[in-house]
Amino acid sequence: MGYAIEVNNVIKKFKRGSGLKKREIVAVNNATFEINEGEIFGLLGPNGAGKTTLVRCIATLLIPDSGTIKIMGKDVLKYPLFCRRQIGLLTSGERTLYWKLSAKDNLKFFAALYGLDKKETEKRIDYLMELLGLKEVQNERVEKYSSGMKQKVSLARALIHDPKVLLLDEPTLGLDPQFARFLRDFIKNVLNRQERKTILLTTHYMDEADELCSRIAFINQGRIVDCKTPEEYKRDLPHSEVLEIKTTLITNAKELEENLSKIPTIEKVNITTQNTITHFKIILPRAEQVLSDVISEVQKYAKILAIDVNEPTLEDVFIYITGRRLTEDTKEELELE
Amino acid sequence: MNQSLRNLLKEWFAKAKHYLRAIWLENLKEWKIELTYKPDFIRGLIDPLVYALPYLLYGIALVGGRTSENLNRLVGTNDLITFVTLGYIFVGFLNMALWAMGFALRKEQHWGTLEAVFAAPVPRWVFALGMALHSTLHQGLMIFLQIIVINLIFKLTIHPQGILPSLVVIGLMLIALYGFGLMIASLTLILKQGWLVSEALSGIMMIITPIAYPLSVLPVFMQKAALFLPTTYGVMTVRHFLIGEQMGFSLWTSFLRLVILGIFWVGVGMLIFEIIDRRTRRSGTIAHY
Question: For chain A: N or C, fewer Cβ within 10 A?
Answer without folding.
Answer: N
